[in-house]
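Morning, I've got a small favour to ask if you have a moment. I owe you a coffee for this, so here goes:
>
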Amino acid sequence: MVDYFQGSESEEQQALFQWAEMMSRRYNELTLLYHIPNGGARCKGTAGRLKAEGVKSGVPDICLPVAKGKYHGLYIELKVGNNKPSPNQVRWIDALLEQNYQAKICYGWQEAAAVISNYMEGKD
């Protein structure tokens, strides 16, 4: 794994999950880290079916369902470059914070890895 690159959001997320796999030797709970496949281009039929199944706009990309300190778990919305969170993403982050989840918007895999490491160490 390279020390730094800025690729697509998909490449950044793949790098984050490679890092998490390596770090799961230190933090076994990282094996619970998962991606929420909410985004992406889809045909209307698939989009309608997924919406009926409960897919919701703005849900963060990544979840770590591990309680630490005052938090029930961690959510991360991963961004790259100059991408900004959508209003729905901001609403989700705010709502998760109100429910005692830690929720962050991170730019690139390295920032997300730092947030996860701090979370696992009990640092805000």
